[in-house]
Amino acid sequence: MQYGPRIAEEYLQRNQPPGVPPLPLTGERTLPDVPEENYWYRRHLVVYEWIAARVAGLRVVDMACGEGYGSDLLATKAASVVGVDANPEAHEHARLRYVRPNLRFERDLVESFAEPCDAVVFLQTIEHVQDPGAINPWHLKEYRAEEFRGLCEGHFPRVEMHGLFHARKLRAHELAIRLGWDSVHKRIGLTKPFYDRFTPAISARDFALRGTDLDRALDFLAVCHASA
Questions:
Q1: What are the structural domains, with CATH classification, of the chain?
Q2: Measured between alpha carbons, how far is residue 89 from residues 16, 20, 66, 94, 97 in Å?
Q3: Is-contact 30 67, C-beta < 8 A?
Q4: Which of 60, 113, 117, 139 is most deeply packed, by most CB within 10 A?
C-alpha cells in the first residue's frame, strides 16, 4: 500500500513557527507537517484523540512523546500533561512548538522518569523493546493480540483491548488494492500523481477503533487499569 515514506531523511517538517527547528523524517518517529508522512501521522493522531476524550481533568504523563503533537492534543482536555522523551532534538522542538500553561516537556528516559499522575500514555513504543526475533528496523518486537494482552495482564488486573482499522476512504483504498489497483496505477503511470493527492487528504476519520477481530488490526491499544 502506497501511503508515504517511513524512512526518508531528506524530508523536513514544513511551515514551522519562527524559532522552532524542523525535525527530519527518519522513520523513528511520526511527524506532522510532512505531507508524505500524513497517513502515519493521522494513524497515530486518531488514537491520541480517543485517549484525550477519556483523560479530561486528569494529570497525564505522555511517555516517549516524540515531536510533541500528541502531548499537545492531550493537554486540550487534561488538567496537566508532561511529555517525556530522551531525544534532544525532539525535546527541543516540542518545548518550543507546543506551549500551553498546563503542558511541559521533560527530557528523560521512560525507565527513569517518575512523577505522580492519574494516567500514563505510552504509544508506539513497547515494540522497541529488544527481542532476537526482530522483523522491522525500528520495531524490535511485533505483538499478536493475545501476546500483547498477556503482557499487559501480567502487570495490571484489568485490561481493555482495542484495535485500529482503516475506515472510509482508506477502507475503500484497501479494497481497491485487493482488486488489483497496485498493478493498474503502476501500468498507467498514475502512482505519483494519485498518492501526491491521496496521502495528504487522509484524516483521522479514515481510521476506526473497535474491540473485535483484533488480529487483523493495524495497531493495538490496551487500556490498563491499576484496580479491578
A1: 35-225 (3.40.50)
A2: 14, 11, 9, 9, 12
A3: yes
A4: 60
The Cα angle at residue 102 between residues 101 and 105, in degrees rounded to 5: 95
Angle at 11 between CA 10 and CA 12, to 5 degrees: 115
Q: Which three cell numbers stand for residue 204?
A: 483521522
CB neighbours of residue 119 within 10 Å? 18
Dist. CA 137–CA 154, nearest whole Å: 27
Q: pLDDT tens, 65-112?
A: 999 999 999 999 999 999 999 999 999 999 999 999 999 999 998 888
- Give the integer Cα–Cα distance in Å for 66 and 166: 24
Strand ranges (DSSP E) for the chain?
A: 59-63, 80-85, 103-107, 119-122, 158-166, 207-210, 219-225
